[in-house]
Write a structure and sequence with these properties.
- The complex is a heterodimer of chains A (about 325) and B (about 425).
- Chain A has about 325 residues and is of the alpha/beta class.
- Chain A has 2 domains: about 1-195, Thiamin diphosphate (ThDP)-binding fold, Pyr/PP domains (Rossmann fold, 3-Layer(aba) Sandwich); about 205-330, 3-Layer(aba) Sandwich (Rossmann fold).
- In chain A, about 35% of the residues lie in helices and about 20% in strands.
- Chain A has 12 helices and 16 strands.
- In chain A, strand 15 (about 265-270), helix 10 (about 275-285) and strand 16 form a beta-alpha-beta unit.
- In chain A, helix 1 packs parallel to helix 7, helix 3 (about 70-80) runs parallel beside helix 4 (about 100-105) and helix 8 crosses helix 12 (about 320-330).
- The two termini of chain A are about 35 Å apart.
- Chain B is an alpha/beta fold and about 425 residues long.
- Chain B has helices at about 5-30, 45-55, 70-75, 80-90, 120-135, 155-165, 215-230, 255-265, 270-280, 285-305, 380-385, 395-405, and strands at about 60-65, 140-145, 170-175, 180, 185, 205-210, 235-240.
- In chain B, the strands form 2 sheets. Chain B has a 5-stranded parallel sheet, with helices on both faces. Chain B has a two-stranded antiparallel ribbon with strand order 4-5.
- In chain B, strand 4 (about 180) and strand 5 (about 185) form a beta hairpin.
- In chain B, helix 2 (about 45-55) runs parallel beside helix 7.
- The N and C termini of chain B lie far apart (about 60 Å).
- The chains are: A alpha/beta (about 325), B alpha/beta (about 425).
- At the A-B interface, helix 2, helix 3, helix 4, helix 5 and strand 11 of A face helix 5, helix 6 and helix 12 of B.
Chain lengths: ~325, ~425
């Protein structure tokens, strides 16, 4: 991480406020940065992540759009071609698939095919656990991790959310930035008062341990830490790594840890089949096969849509108990 | 606004139409020699549309072609060799063999955005270029083309609606060539005129004979001038006909013979030659000069293209990402003072104002019901039109925001290491 000021702010801020600060500061820093999305202007965003931005930066830079995800993404891409750095908000990240073609065929392929960089950010609230039901709880990150040309970020802390969003705005590539809405108001953190960024593509060790490695990101990172505390009471020291960026994946940090602990558990809220755990399993088979003392295990959501009823959603989602149980099983090897 | 063409401009249109046809004829030969890697699409009979619309743009303006708009690319300044090499997948082509046909662009100099095969996607993209250019004070106009077929895609409508509500300086040419692959327009759209699509978005539209080069130029120029002046996006329907199949492999036997004969007699180049001769703008000598010029140019261009190598295999795994300033220095070209869009001058009241609200005026001149707030207001309220109250939050969002605000058992209060 880079930090131009290390003085800490007097009060801790929420994840949501960290997002707002990142956009505010980037728009303040660079007039090429604009924001467009549904209800981002007068209303300040469905979750208030853009509150106060219209007031300060005006109608030309904070653009309320019709309910047209393809138009939002397409227009942002066009704006990026004249040197602007648009941020697109998806009101709920579930709606990003309405612009799937625009993102995966047009935006993502431009640099490879015709040398056209598209410096733009697509961000929005994702994830379950808040009883949003099947169309307001998605974790669609893997559709896009499978798309060369995109970068995919999914942070777990206010500090990272702010620093990574700033990096995303300054990046010359299209960056997808997922904000787990379960974390929006639940976690707080004191942030540096000055400008700082967190590099894209770097995982971080949140907790050191020697018996096994738990790889996770977003809300499940907190679940993994909770499980690690419980494991420690039984004498199992888990190393918890927060992936932070899913594309490009930080193989170096993953391999360093797994070569030390020789066991790997992947925890993600995304559904099981085709989740990042599968990709990590392949990487470990290719590059750390001889270092593994046990199978790669994974704790994930069920291979179903996100159900609405709290009892069903609880059964659908991973939790600390499920992580604890899987880690205990893995530790036996 | 001057829509009258000079003699030179008349001859420019003729030259580019002839060049377009000659470039495509050359590619047909290359195709038959197996030198074209993929498909080959023809604009035979539609040259006037591509050429005369693009000719209405200024150098600083932007365009995005479709696969049948080779003529627009030539007018914008693309050399024929680039078109040949694109089709032949050569390493010296604009995309260095990574894509074919008209799928290439040039952000820095010619201001061309590359098309993709999914029709309609360029409409919001060119809307965005137009909005971005306006934001930077560049006074540019953007243009793209869509077919009768592409006008049924969702993104056509999303894009055009957004362009309309933003009053983007954008001109959309709807090239109605009567066929979407094998499906006639009557089986696609229940409209006599596709220009009527514009009515849904409250934007201006024109209908023009797409095989009359001067008529096409005339409406295109008027539309470009109006868009530049701030009239918002404009849709032009150019009625024309696709003389060949969807691509080289398609003999188009589904097209009625009488229909083909009708349009062959209305060939845009023949019609234009008659016009030029009648106006004494072109004689046999002048025509011969243009023939020779095109022949000589294309011989050189074709030779260059044929001699260009295929890309080396290792090139496949390069260029997915921009690596930063060393790769692309992305700097907007500001033509207006930046202070206009930065605080404090950019500061506004974050409220909607709704024209006519509280004035007792009907929301529509038609027979729409009078909306709440449009009912006759008291004298007091009429004095100051009140801004609308803040929009109430959407039910789903409100509920979720509330749920997310609840205390968490697992995450709250945990100190997480950076």
């Amino acid at each position: 991480m880079t930090m131009s000021a290390t003085q800490t702010a007097p009060t801790a801020v929420t994840f949501l406020e960290a997002i707002r600060q990142a956009m505010f500061e980037e728009m303040e820093r660079d007039p090429a940065v604009v924001l467009l999305g549904e209800d981002v202007g007068v209303y300040g965003g469905a979750f208030k992540t853009s509150e106060g931005l219209l007031e300060r930066f005006g109608w030309e830079r904070v653009i309320d759009t019709p309910i047209s995800e393809s138009a939002i993404i397409g227009a942002a891409c066009g704006m990026s071609y004249v040197g602007l750095r648009p941020i697109c908000e998806m009101q709920f990240i579930d709606f990003i698939v309405c612009a799937f073609n625009q993102i995966t065929n047009f935006v993502a392929k431009g640099h490879y095919l015709w040398n056209a960089p598209a410096p733009m950010v697509i961000r929005g609230p994702s994830g379950g656990g808040v009883h949003g039901g099947p169309f307001h709880s998605a974790n669609p990150e893997m559709y896009f991790v499978h798309t060369p040309g995109l970068k995919v970020i999914y942070p777990s802390t206010p500090y990272d959310a702010k620093g990574l969003l700033k990096s995303a705005v300054r990046d010359n590539n299209p960056v997808l930035f997922f904000e787990h809405k379960f974390l929006y108001r639940r976690i707080k953190e004191e942030l540096p008062t000055g400008d700082y960024t967190v590099p894209i593509g770097k995982a971080v060790v949140r907790r050191e341990g020697r018996h096994l490695t738990i790889l996770s990101y977003a809300a499940m990172m907190h679940t993994s830490l909770e499980a690690a505390d419980a494991l420690a009471k039984e004498g199992i020291e888990a190393e918890v790594i927060d992936l932070r960026t899913l594309l490009p994946l930080d193989e170096e940090t993953i391999l360093r840890s797994v070569k030390k602990t020789n066991k790997c558990l992947v925890v993600h809220e995304d559904t099981r089949t085709g989740g990042i755990a599968g990709e990590i399993a392949a990487i470990l088979c290719e590059k750390a096969f001889g270092d593994l003392d046990g199978p790669l295990l994974r704790v994930t959501s069920l291979d179903t849509p996100v159900p609405y009823a709290p009892t069903l959603e609880e059964a659908f989602l991973p939790n600390a108990q499920k992580v604890f149980t899987a880690a205990k099983e893995l530790a036996r090897y | 606004m001057n829509k009258e063409l000079t003699r030179k401009q008349h001859l420019d249109l003729y030259y580019y139409m002839r060049l377009t046809r000659a470039v495509e004829d050359t590619m047909t030969k290359l195709f038959r020699q197996n030198k074209i890697v993929g498909g080959l699409y023809s604009s035979l009979g539609q040259e006037a549309v591509s050429v005369a619309t693009a000719y209405a743009l200024e150098k600083k303006d932007w365009l995005a072609p479709m696969v049948r708009n080779i003529g627009a690319l030539l007018v914008k300044g693309v050399p024929p060799r680039d078109v040949f090499m694109q089709h032949m997948a050569k390493y010296d082509s604009p995309t260095k063999g990574k894509d074919g046909t008209s799928h290439f662009g040039d952000l820095d100099n010619l201001h061309i955005v590359s098309p993709i095969s999914m029709l309609g996607d360029l409409i919001p993209v060119m809307t965005g270029v137009a909005m971005g250019g306006r934001y930077l004070g560049q006074k540019i106009v953007t243009m793209t083309w869509i077919g009768d077929g592409g006008s049924s895609t969702g993104v056509f409508h999303e894009g055009l609606n957004f362009a309309a509500v933003q009053k983007a300086p954008f001109v959309l040419i709807l090239e109605n060539n009567l066929w979407a692959y094998s499906t006639p327009v009557k089986r696609q759209v229940p409209l006599q005129n596709l220009a009527d699509r514009a009515k849904a978005y409250g934007i201006s539209n024109y209908i023009v004979d797409g095989n009359d080069a001067v008529a096409v130029y005339s409406v295109a120029k008027e539309a470009v001038d109006r868009a530049r002046a701030g009239d918002g996006p404009i849709l032009i329907e150019a009625k024309t006909f696709r003389r060949l199949g969807h691509a080289q492999h398609d003999p188009a036997e589904y097209v009625p013979k009488e229909m083909r004969a009708y349009w062959e007699a209305r060939d845009p180049i023949l019609l234009y030659e008659k016009f030029l001769a009648a106006e004494k703008l072109l004689d046999a000598k002048g025509k011969k000069e243009i023939d020779d010029k095109i022949d000589a140019l294309l011989a050189t261009e074709r030779e260059f293209a044929e001699n260009s190598p295929m890309p080396p295999p290792a090139f496949a795994d390069t260029g997915v990402y921009c690596t930063g300033d060393d790769c692309h220095k992305i700097r907007p070209n500001w033509v207006r003072p930046i202070s206009e869009v930065t605080p404090p001058r950019s500061s506004v009241a974050p409220v909607w104002t709704v024209e006519g609200f509280g004035q007792g005026k009907s929301s529509s001149s038609g027979n729409a019901p009078i909306h709440f707030g449009d009912t006759p207001a008291t004298e007091e309220a009429t004095r100051d039109a009140q801004p609308l109250p803040r929009v109430p939050p959407k039910a789903g969002a409100k509920k979720l925001a509330k749920a997310a605000g609840a205390a968490s058992k697992s995450a709250a209060g945990r100190k997480v290491r950076r």
